[in-house]
Amino acid sequence: MLSTITIVLAATTSLVSAIPTRTARDVPSVTDELTGVTHTVVAGRAGQLIFDPDNVVADIGDVIEWHYLPANHSVVQSTFDAPCLPLSDTSFFSGFFPIKEGQSDEVFQVVVKDDKPIWYYCAQGTHCSSGMLGAINQDFDSDKTLREFKELAKAAGPGVAPPEITGGERIPNPNPNSGV
Ligand SMILES: *[C@@H]1O[C@H](CO)[C@@H](O)[C@H](O)[C@H]1NC(C)=O
Ligand SMILES: [Cu+2]
């Protein structure tokens, strides 16, 4: 009887270890409460210097996930008033994504931590002053609109890239076959 139980236990143990565990990429490594909602933004749709969509409304705990098309784009968080300059040392920067065709193998994820507007741009060359900017949770009752943000950027110099990737997670594309 005892030996039968031992065998059953051993079989159960090996079965359990064969079940795949959740992979590390399932959630960004933040302690915030996540909603499970992901907003996909594509950088460089149709070879244009745009983010699509460039105006996202998200809840706290949602993930913004940027996908990159050719050629070599990035995202950097800025202030509204200085569109092509990094907000701070710790605000997000995705690094550059130099790719020739298709979409990048990696994406950049940022978790929305509060309900304040988030302004961002691409730091490549003059992409920022050319209109490659976006907003998350702009205040639609305010004068600080995405349109005005893009107007301000026209007068800005080349986009400034922070020294290192920060403020988000650069990870393998979770849905590589889904297209963008
Ligand atoms: C991508 O752009 C960055 C910033 O301009 C540059 O340093 C890097 O060399 C570029 N990569 C390629 C492969 O063009
Ligand atoms: Cu760009």
UniProtKB/TrEMBL annotation:
InterPro entries in the record: Cupredoxin, Ser-rich/MCO-related
Record keywords: Signal
Disordered: annotated span: 157-180
Signal peptide from the UniProt entry: 1-18
Transmembrane segments: none
Protein name in the entry: Extracellular serine-rich protein
Protein species of origin: Cephalotrichum gorgonifer
